[in-house]
Each structure stands twice: as C-alpha cells, then as structure tokens.
Predict the structure.
Amino acid sequence: MNSLLMYGAAAALAVAVHAEAQVTKTVPGEMKTMTLTVEAIETSTRTLTVKKPDGTFDMIYVPTEVKRFDTLKIGDQINARYYENVILQLKAPGDKDTDKNDYQVTRAEGTSGGTIGHQRTITATITAIDPQAPSITFSGPRGWTYSTRVKDKEALAKVKVGDKVDITWTEALLVSIEDGK
C-alpha cells in the first residue's frame, strides 16, 4: 500500500491509451487486506508511520474528520482494506490542464472504523517514449515525473511525445482500529 493520500499511485499504470478508437483506459486495481501496526505518530501533521505485514513501513495522512486519531498509540493495530484504480484519458489539443485533489471521510457509526476516499486528477505530458523497452515517461504539476514499462505496444505506437493525458487515481481505505497488546 502506498501512502493513501499521496498521488504516487501511478505504479498501476500499464498505459494503454488508444488515441484513435478509445480515448479512455481504466487500469483496475485489486482489493488488498492487511493489518498495520502503528509505529510512530506525528500529531502536528496527523501522519502515522505504520508497519506492514511484509516488514516495510508506510506513512498515512489521517484527515481531521477522523476523530479517533488523538486516541491512537504506538502498537495499535489498524485493520485495512485498500483499493485503487487508475483512469487515463487522452486530452484533445488545447484542453485546459487539470490538477485537483479530493478527499472524503465517512465514519462508521458505533465503531472505531470508517472509510477514507481519495481522488487525484492531474494532466500529465508524455515527455519520452522508448518503443524498444517499451516504456513511457510522463511529467506533471509540481515536478511530478513517472516512467513505466508498457505492456501494450500497439497502444504505445498511437501516442507521441507532447500528448497530454489526464490521469485519475481513485483510492479507498476501509479501516478499523484495534487497541495495541
């Protein structure tokens, strides 16, 4: 799980934008279930450092709507189900660039859990294409860059350097908090 409320979820990109017949491509994710352990709490930024089952660490921003944040302590367990998908849409020349970030938190009444939803949309420009690898590189707002291999060589042949693509990441995190042992 990447940091939920950061826009680096592009790892799912398989980039299959079809410039002719199809201008939108959805790259579905999969639901992941895991138990995270709270390892550090930064109250001023409302950020948790959590340890994942594989022993790696991640940081999660907790929105102010999550009221139980102040009761968390080191060692608490967070049961999480995480899902993300990515939608790519080729922009027509001259269309206005997009850069938006939306969050929504829904508390589960009577429980220590809830759902955090996040959707990030940016306009990225294709800055490099390597048909030999095959790979593609994007750049976007605030210095964002991303390079990835491309599985669909036909789709890669239908885009060119300078094309603009709206990339939308949608993430949902369903959590419940258990007291540490």
About this structure: Strands lie at 24-27, 32-42, 47-51, 57-61, 77-90, 99-107, 113-130, 135-139, 145-149, 164-178.
